[in-house]
Design a protein that fits this description.
The structure is a homodimer of 96-residue chains. With 96 residues, the first copy, chain A, is mainly α. Chain A has 6 helices and no strands. At the A-B interface, helix 5 and helix 6 of A face helix 5 and helix 6 of B. Chain B binds a DNA duplex (30 and 30 nucleotides) through helix 3.
Chain lengths: 96, 96
DNA sequence: TATTGTTTGGACTAATTCATCAAAAATACA
DNA sequence: TGTATTTTTGATGAATTAGTCCAAACAATA
C-alpha cells in the first residue's frame, strides 16, 4: 500500500530538496513534515496547493494521491467501499 | 445535502424507536446519539453493524450512506474529487 | 393541568491528536 | 576523520474531540 507520505518523499528526493525547504514553504516545522512523510502525522488538504507548487507536480495529480490515501486509510476495510464510491460519484455528478 | 445523521433519524422515527433504545444497542449515551443525529458528533464505522440491525436496514445500504457522508464532508470541496474517486475505484478493483 | 417519557444542552472529565523545541542520530562530503 | 547538514526522536504542553452525567426543555396523553 503506497502512502501519501511516501509519495511526497519520493518526489522531494527526486528534486533533491531538503525537508527544511519544503517545510518552510508550508510554514510548518521540519519534524512535522518528516512525520508526515513517514505517516506518523497526516497532511491536510490545505497543504496541497503549496506542495504541488514546491514539488512541481500538477494540482490534479497530488490531489488524486491525497484522496486515494485518505479514503483507503479510513474506509479501506469496509465491505461495500466499492459501492459507496460509486454512489458518491453518482451524487457529485448529479449536483455541481 | 443529506447528512448521515438525518438518515439515522428518519429511519429511527419510521420505526418509532426512542433514542434510548438505539443508544442502548450501541452502548452509548442517548445524548451522544442525539448529537450524532443532529451532526454535532460523528458516527464511527464500528457503529454500522449495530445500527443496521437495530434500524433494520441492510449493511450495504447503511455503509453506502456512511461512506457518502464521510467523503463529502471531508473532501467535498476538492477540485478533483471525481478523478480521485475514480482512481480509488481503480485501485481497489486492482487488489482484493 | 399533571404525569410520564423523550430529547437536548451544558458543565465537566478523559482521551486523542497536534505543534514546538532541542538534542540525538544519520548522512554527506571536504 | 572531522565538520556541516539533514533527518529523526521524544518530551512537553496546547488544542481538539469524545464521553459521562444530570438537569432543563419538550412532547404526548391521561
Amino acid at each position: 500500500m503506497n502512502s501519501f507520505g511516501e509519495y511526497l518523499r519520493n518526489r522531494r528526493e527526486q528534486l533533491g530538496l531538503p525537508l527544511r525547504k519544503v517545510a518552510a514553504e508550508l510554514d510548518i516545522d521540519t519534524s512535522i513534515l518528516s512525520k508526515i512523510e513517514r505517516s506518523e502525522r497526516v497532511a491536510t488538504k490545505e497543504m496541497l496547493p503549496t506542495l504541488a507548487k514546491t514539488l512541481e507536480v500538477q494540482d490534479k495529480e497530488i490531489e488524486i494521491e491525497f484522496i486515494k490515501a485518505f479514503i483507503l486509510s479510513d474506509l479501506g476495510d469496509l465491505n461495500f467501499l466499492k459501492s459507496g464510491l460509486e454512489e458518491t460519484l453518482n451524487t457529485i455528478k448529479g449536483r455541481k
